[in-house]
Amino acid sequence: MEKIKLKEQTMEFKLNGTTINYEGDPELSLMTYLRDVEEIISPKDGCAPEGVCGCCTVLLDGNVLKACIAPMRRIAGKEVITMEGLDPGKKETVINAFAIEGGLQCGFCTPGIIMKVWPLLNQGFVTEKEINKALNSNLCRCTGYKKVTKSCLSAAEALRNNAKIELPQSSGKVGESLPKYDSLRLATGEAPYVADLKFEGMVHGALKFSDHPRAKVLKIDTSVAEKLDGVFRVFTAEDIPGERFTGLIVPDWPLMLKRGETTRYVGDVLAGIVAETEQIAREAVALIDVEYEVLTPITDPFDALSKNCPQIHKKGNLLSTTEIKRGDSKKAEKESAFVTKGTYTTQRIEHAFLEIECCVAQPLEGGVEVFSQSQEFMKTGAVSVKF
Ligand code: FES
Ligand code: FES
Prior knowledge:
By secondary structure, the chain is α+β, with helices and mostly antiparallel strands. It folds into 2 domains: 1-195, Ubiquitin-like (UB roll), CATH 3.10.20.30; 199-301, Aldehyde oxidase/xanthine dehydrogenase, a/b hammerhead (Aldehyde Oxidoreductase, domain 3).
């Protein structure tokens, strides 16, 4: 089968003081290059290629840059500095400030935040307002910004006075207030998250999601994707040998949809690609051709319960009912001066964790070892063994 090749370009640039001769795709993002080719994992992938979270921030000729939206052609002849290329003494002062002030929790955003404020911390005097303005384009979902700003101000003051910030030594006694045990590895970005894991011979997967929230899938043509150089295998629902359905409350969520089935949201998966690199896998996904009969989506929960609404799920559109009883409401009503009745709705809440959803599976003798991000690893294990 004739394979389609990706384009290549030759150029030179500096990375943390070393001259690099790059020969490859000029459109490849700097973040992907750093993470996949150089295996520098301090720039984290929180939203690539959206360019909104700031986790991948690096310095380009001294200016801050979101590496996920910078194509390699933009780097030609310039100098890239990552966390690894910062002055070691100053870096220690900054990460110690974050550790002592509690400026990080999960730490996923922290290397990007430090890179973002680095030029400010080194400019001499910096105000709280300047720090906050700089952090406008860096997201943190767990620490909150007050402690981050405090860490930055403390680091800036120490750098300005050529002073060191030392970590407190533990006496080993219970009750001491100490920095988070892994804060230094988290702050420098050395601590690996799932997307940072690499194994010998690892291949990469990418999924083709539905283009429509509700549509009947008429055809899935993967023939062009299969011809892309570097693609090992294309999977569709027909390739799943075991149980095809999963779900935490009702197990009726298909891992992949078959031709003829109807999607329920844009997160429904139609096919999966396994390729040499993540970039190739994603390029191949874009080459999958799907024909749909597009249907009107149901977007309102109350409409979904009405009699004439199409049934999205076999057992009906009501997923579950939760009744909450606290105290004697009848008695409280009787004793109240005023009683009002109504239907109350709350806003949707997205946890907005910054680490991307992904997993790594490693075949072992007699099984598979799965690395995934979850609070419920036992459940992940139980679900995984079904397929
Ligand atoms: S801004 Fe680059 S990964 Fe989010
Ligand atoms: S510490 Fe900022 S995202 Fe977790």
